[in-house]
Design goal:
about 80 residues; elongated
């Protein structure tokens, strides 16, 4: 009985993670399609950071962007 409960719990948590990741990727895709090329680069860099790509380096003489609160500019 205990083993069954552990297996069911693991399965539910696994499915929940897959659904959450799918929803996040759907939002990222929508933002990429709606944004300008600059927005796409910024989104890609944020996604790389989130996936473990490390800190993004700012170009020389350019201050790094503050985290969060970014606005995606829709294409005309």
């Amino acid at each position: 009985m205990m083993l069954t409960a552990v297996i069911v719990t693991a399965a539910v948590l696994g499915v929940a993670k897959v659904v959450r990741d799918w929803l996040i990727l759907r939002q990222v895709r929508a933002a990429m399609e709606a944004g300008t090329p600059e927005d796409r680069v910024r989104i890609g860099m944020r996604l790389a950071e989130a996936l473990g790509g490390g800190q993004s380096a700012a170009a020389p003489g350019q201050a790094p962007e503050p985290p969060g609160g970014e606005v995606v500019t829709p294409r005309p």
